[in-house]
Design goal:
This protein is mainly β. It contains ten helices and 53 strands. The strands form 13 sheets. It has a 22-stranded antiparallel β-barrel. Helix 4 packs antiparallel against helix 5.
């Protein structure tokens, strides 16, 4: 953008620097609204003498506050007849902490920010880079209004099993939506729906991309913004744009950071002596004999008999307090007059918390390693013809113990401290008839599992400027090919355990063997294979006629997804969209998409979708021209009909498929051999009328900028009605022995309000900002084909989507008389201390007629608040994120079951049961009476187990220091930055026995991460 100098014309020039002394590239210098110069990579700019003294220079850059200077008055410049300025003046711009570019990315293109009338929210790379994260999803929580993330696990849950099921009528894969995502630790919701992820114009896996390579992340929430997706348009879009080569000069950037992870909110199991005491109490409540004596209690407490009366803290013995995580990324870019290039590579290593053994030559800890490499080359074949080629490859290697991460976490959760010793006196693994596998043996001596994912992607984009034929017209083409192959290597083994019983004399003892030893297996399984091909053609038009500005697009695309060698899925779209504005004051837009997918029956494969929008920029009106403090006041609204029919409509379920089964009877075949009678059966019944789900979506909003654009406010209200939802008929009866297929009969309503506000300013070198967003969403089941309900309170229709349904707990039974006089579950014996349920219909029996909504029926509200500043090279940012009006069902069958683990003698018990009911604690009890049997009364789904899920989390803190440019430049370094950051540092929750986002300890815990690193740019 460096302005051209004219020989023999008087010129003057300068250099643009930020407050750190770094040169500013890409700034625009304007006079009376016209661009007269631009700054190069060293911050230099040149002005021709046609710009006279006294003119006001306006310096603009999206990352900096606008600055004005009067030429010749506020600058000291010697004018000389030469092609180079004889003297340069220095202009210092103060940076905006938050990036606010004039152009924003939209689906399959870019648009002027001030002309947008849809609901779009965006964050940029400087906010993403503050988060030490293996995936970009970690950095999104609390930053974008309307986007709600719930982190269910602290690490990726590896795929190690075969992901397809074969039947006689053809393979019916479980993953029929596209390539299986390797993400399992996050739930991502955009206004209640799972958004479609589009990366650089192609639908891809969010978790395959290096966070350091991202330029911006946007969420497209209204009907118009996502309409080109056709049958995927109802869900909204998570739009990711990666960094592209935009300079001809060589640049190099390296970022490395190393961190330490530690688990949040681990369970608190009872020590062995407390466990033994409370187990005796539970047995007595069940009219059974106690199994432990006072001597046992003392031995457990004092550790005098570690073999016979062990006290093993399994969490401490199997899990480490911390684990390392490291990420490194390198980017090189440059080019010449014709071509520009960018090459990026990254490496990430995240280790889990499992203890390991130095005797193993292989990895038994949970670990994931990710290697990525990407390249982009942009070639100007002619002034009008651009070719853009991108290549991407990823290798993801995961490991875990041979016993399996999930199985181990469950066993740690379920095993009491008093169950058995880790090792016997002779070094063998401890165990007994009830525990025939040893946790430590399964952790460090069960072999290993490796899962491997290999991804490759090639993308070619063509852009031809047709201005010579029609001004403002251009043609674009994109084609993309990607493959993914996931495999698992299982080398598993198992050890026997021994129960040691010392002799009465105290000399020696006997060992009794339990369980069976298994030699190490060597199994290799193809988990999933996918091949995706995508092609896109478009004609784009962008032209201004006086006061009229028109933007249009004709668009067509096709995607072919083949998963596990099954029949391909081939969605395609034909679309048109147009935008118009008059003087930047009045805006109108419209779009239409004709969408096709082959998973429906012939004659039902095409659908039509549309969207329209209007906007009004009031600050362009005469009645607001004199309001100096108001920079923008735009009213906008969008309405449209969208669809959702590719990812949820099954695998050709309009066809009837069959499976092979065998009769129960057998007959003799040869000597000692039996066989069954084979037959075919329908599985399941086909629905030839299945079609896509639909939605009518309305969004109205207002955008406000004030105080010289230092303050920005946005508000959106949306009303989305989803209908023809696939549901089971509640009144269906399987007359012929088969389940009925899903039908397009459901209807749900989602409505809500979203607010966001940002204020940023500076006092000299001190730049600061404060930004917040808040979202509230209410839902309603408008139609659900329920079975006939006798009472209105039994109905789910009219309640919130996903609301908890069960009994209302009414305290505990206080006495035998209370038990005798109160309503109870039929055929269930209860005692004082058991949960008492409310008899809603007054018939003195607790049954299905007493069930109603018990939770998750309030508008979910979530928010994020970020504050930060930079000053003389230092920068600090802090992010708080949270939610309220949020319920969670906390009973997971172990944590709150108390001695009632299926398949074992007695399971582990946790601190929750210390609040159990006894006659002495009846007034303060927070937990039912203890029992060792399966207490069907207390395990009913009820409001007793519903807790507030409200929480606020200190999600991220980042502190950095950038060395002054005058120092780093001496060593050829344009920027040298040191930083430390933390993730998930503190959580305040209404219920803190479990993490508010992880409701089951069978999942890997969420991690706190503290890391430090360096960024070097050349």
């Amino acid at each position: 953008m460096l302005a051209q100098s004219v020989v023999q014309e008087s010129v003057r020039g300068g250099i643009l620097l930020d407050s750190y002394g770094n040169p500013i590239e890409g700034a625009t210098i304007r006079v009376q609204g016209d661009s007269v110069a631009g700054s190069d990579s060293e911050g230099n700019f040149v002005l021709l003498s046609t710009v006279p003294n006294g003119e006001v220079l306006v310096f603009e850059h999206p990352d900096f506050y606008v600055k004005t200077l009067t030429l010749g008055t506020e600058t000291s410049v010697t004018i000389k007849n030469d092609s180079q300025p004889s003297e340069r003046f220095t202009v210092t711009l103060f940076s905006r902490y938050l990036h606010t570019p004039e152009e924003v990315y939209v689906l399959y293109g870019k648009a002027d920010r001030r002309s947008q009338i849809g609901s779009v929210s965006t964050i940029h790379t400087e906010q993403l880079n503050t988060t030490p994260a293996p995936t970009v999803a970690y950095a999104l929580a609390g930053r974008l209004p309307g986007l709600y993330l719930s982190q269910g696990s602290g690490i990726r849950m590896p795929a190690t099993g075969n992901n397809y099921v074969a039947d006689l009528g053809g393979n019916v894969p479980r993953y029929f939506l596209g390539a299986p995502s390797d993400n399992t630790e996050f739930g991502i919701s955009l206004r209640g729906q799972a958004p479609v992820v589009v990366i650089d114009g192609v639908q891809r896996d969010l978790y395959s991309i290096d966070p350091d390579n991202i330029e911006s992340v946007s969420v497209l929430k209204d009907a118009y913004s996502s309409l080109l997706l056709g049958m995927r348009s109802s869900r909204g879009v998570l739009l990711i744009t990666t960094k592209r080569p935009d300079t001809k000069e060589f640049k190099l950037s390296f970022t490395g950071q190393v961190g330490v992870q530690s688990a949040l909110n681990m369970p608190k199991p009872l020590p062995a002596y407390q466990y033994a005491y409370l187990l005796n109490e539970a047995l007595q409540n069940d009219n059974k004999a106690a199994v432990y004596t006072n001597a046992d209690f003392e031995a457990f407490k004092n550790g005098t008999d570690p073999t016979g009366r062990p006290n093993v803290d399994w969490y401490d013995q199997t899990l480490k307090s911390s684990a390392p995580m490291s990420t490194y990324s390198l980017n090189i870019s440059g080019g010449g007059r014709v071509a520009r290039y960018s090459i990026s590579g990254s490496y990430m290593n995240q280790q889990g918390l499992f203890h390991t053994s130095g005797q193993n030559s292989y990895q038994t800890n949970i670990e994931q390693k990710r290697y990525t490499i990407s390249s982009n080359v942009a070639v100007d074949v002619t002034d009008d013809f651009l070719v853009d080629v991108s290549l991407f490859a990823r290798v993801l290697d995961g490991s875990q113990p041979g016993a399996g991460m999930g199985a181990l976490l469950s066993q740690i959760l379920e095993t009491p401290n008093s169950a058995y010793p880790i090792y016997n006196p002779n070094g063998s693994y401890g165990g007994d008839v009830s525990y025939q596998t040893n946790l430590m043996a399964r952790l460090i001596n069960s072999g290993y599992i490796q899962d491997n994912s290999r991804d490759a992607l090639a993308n070619i984009g063509l852009h031809y400027d047709l201005n010579d034929f029609v001004q403002g017209l251009s043609a674009n083409a994109v084609t993309n090919i990607s493959t993914q192959n996931i495999t698992a290597l299982t080398r598993r083994k198992q050890n026997t355990v021994f129960q040691y019983v010392p002799s009465e004399s105290g000399e020696g003892g006997t060992y009794t063997q339990y369980g069976s030893a298994l030699a190490q297996t060597n199994d290799f399984a193809p988990v999933s294979t996918s091949r995706l091909w995508y092609a896109q053609l478009s004609l784009d038009y962008d032209r201004t006629f006086g006061k009229h500005h028109v933007v249009g697009k004709l668009f067509g695309d096709r995607r072919v997804a083949t998963i596990n060698f099954d029949l391909p899925q081939t969605p395609s779209n034909l679309a048109a969209r147009v935008q118009y504005d008059y003087e930047g004051k009045y805006f109108a837009e419209g779009a239409f998409t004709r969408s096709h997918v082959n998973v429906y029956a012939p004659g039902r494969q095409w659908g039509s979708f549309y969207a329209v929008g209007l906007g009004w920029e009031l600050t362009r009106e005469a009645f607001l021209q004199d309001v100096a403090w108001l920079d923008q006041l735009k009213l906008r609204g969008v309405y449209g009909k969208t669809g959702n029919g590719i990812d949820n409509s099954g695998y050709y379920i309009f066809r009837q498929t069959y499976s092979r089964t065998f009769t129960d009877g057998t007959y003799q075949q040869g000597f000692g051999r039996t066989n069954g009678t084979g037959m075919l059966e329908n599985t399941p019944l086909a629905n030839p009328n299945i079609t896509w789900e639909k939605a009518h979506k309305l969004d109205v909003g207002v955008d406000i900028s004030a105080l010289d654009n230092h303050l920005q406010l946005t508000a959106d209200y949306y009303y989305d009605r989803y209908y023809d939802l696939l549901q089971d008929r509640g009144k269906s009866i399987a007359l012929i022995g088969f389940a009925y297929p899903k039908e397009n009969i459901g209807e749900n309503l989602y409505k809500g309000l979203e607010l966001s506000a940002t204020y940023q300013n500076n006092f000299g070198d001190f730049n600061y900002f404060l930004t917040g967003n808040w979202s509230s969403m209410a839902t309603e089941v408008v139609f659900l084909d329920e079975q006939k309900r006798v009472y209105d309170y039994n109905r789910v229709t009219g309640e919130s989507v996903g609301a908890y349904y069960g009994y209302i707990a009414d305290g505990f039974f206080s006495s035998a008389a209370d038990v005798a006089s109160s309503a109870k579950l039929e055929n269930i014996v209860v005692q004082p201390g058991d949960i008492k349920y409310r008899d809603l219909n007054g018939d003195n029996v607790i049954n299905q007629y007493d069930q109603t909504i018990i939770g998750k029926n309030k508008p979910l509200s979530y928010y994020g608040l970020t504050a930060g500043f930079n000053f003389k090279g230092f920068d600090v940012s802090v992010l708080f994120q949270g939610a309220y009006n949020r319920d969670q069902y906390i009973r997971d069958g172990v944590m709150d079951a108390g001695f009632q683990v299926t398949g074992q003698s007695y399971g582990q018990a946790y601190e929750q049961i210390l609040g159990r009911w006894t006659p002495e604690t009846a007034e303060t009890a927070t937990y039912p009476r203890l029992s060792t049997s399966n207490n069907f009364n207390n395990t009913q789904t009820s409001s007793f187990w519903v807790r507030s899920g409200d929480y606020m989390r200190l999600k991220n803190v980042s502190i950095g220091y950038t060395l002054p440019f005058r120092i780093s430049n001496r060593y050829g370094i344009s920027q040298l930055k040191f930083f430390v950051n933390g993730q998930n540092l503190f959580t305040a929750a209404s219920y803190d026995a479990v993490d508010p986002e992880v409701t089951s300890f069978r999942n890997f815990p969420i991690m706190r991460v503290i890391s430090g690193g360096i960024n070097i740019k050349l």
